[in-house]
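Quiz preparation item.
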């Protein structure tokens, strides 16, 4: 295992613990802050996610979005995500990693994504679960046109510096229960 891989394993363990602690305290005003951040994107196709484990829950902001909303579908290791249309109350089935996906598969190509994470830094980098799904997906979507990636997390998930490699895709905005952060890549 490389030094970077070992560093990411350690960072993931610490991030899971920090997120678990923040989750226990509750979301506070996080969804209101997320809805406010999404206002400039009214009408644009949005991808959110179905929270698993102790992930912060974006569903109230997703339900309030004016425009099509989708959730990610994992089709296989090494592949980018696909997105299927979601509406509050739509029939859902269990997908990969226990995340629920719409029972009816209607593809949506998002221009705005709410991205789950384990940890983030002020440069706009995120630590995910290690599958590279969002990195591959953002690379492909950004090659086709403008895309905004919004990390959604508890403030307690912030770390000084996320260990990164060249394939890691940066976030354009980070919304937490405490603040909205415009990343500074410097």
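Solution:
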């Amino acid at each position: 295992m490389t030094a970077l891989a070992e560093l990411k394993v350690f960072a993931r363990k610490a991030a899971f613990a920090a997120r678990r602690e923040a989750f226990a305290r509750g979301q506070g005003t996080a969804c209101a802050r997320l809805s406010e951040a999404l206002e400039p994107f009214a009408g644009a196709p949005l991808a959110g996610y179905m929270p698993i484990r102790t992930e912060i829950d974006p569903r109230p902001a997703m339900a309030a979005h004016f425009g099509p909303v989708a959730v990610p579908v994992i089709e296989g290791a090494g592949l980018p995500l696909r997105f299927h249309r979601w509406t509050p109350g739509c029939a859902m089935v269990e997908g990969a990693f226990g995340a629920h996906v719409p029972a009816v598969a209607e593809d949506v190509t998002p221009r705005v994504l709410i991205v789950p994470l384990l940890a983030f830094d002020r440069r706009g980098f995120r630590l995910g679960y290690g599958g590279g799904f969002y990195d591959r997906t953002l690379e492909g979507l950004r090659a086709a046109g403008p895309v905004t990636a919004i990390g959604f997390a508890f403030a307690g998930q912030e770390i000084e510096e996320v260990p990164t490699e060249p394939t890691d895709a940066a976030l354009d905005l980070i919304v937490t229960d405490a603040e909205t952060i415009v990343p500074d890549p410097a």
